[in-house]
Amino acid sequence: MSENGTVAAPEAADSPENTENVTYSNADEISYHAVEKEGSVTAIWEMQGDKHLRTIDPRSSEGKKILSLFETAA
User: Fold this and answer.
1) Do 43 and 57 touch, CB atoms closer than 8 A?
2) Is the pTM of this model over 0.85?
3) Helix (H, G, I), strand (E, B) or coil at 31
4) What's the angle, vertex CA 13, arms to CA 9 and CA 14, rounded to 5?
């Protein structure tokens, strides 16, 4: 799941002649980490680089969808 893209630099918004772009690094990519306890997934962490964004319940519809994507990729 790649979240890479190019956006205008904040200073470029005020200056139409400035056409510099800022590119997201790999640290900006969203990743998911399964938290396991005794062989079962108890939580899914959504991370952006080293930053924890939220915790997803693996029993929720979104959690089941994420887990199914990882099972088919393996």
Assistant:
1) yes
2) no
3) strand
4) 125
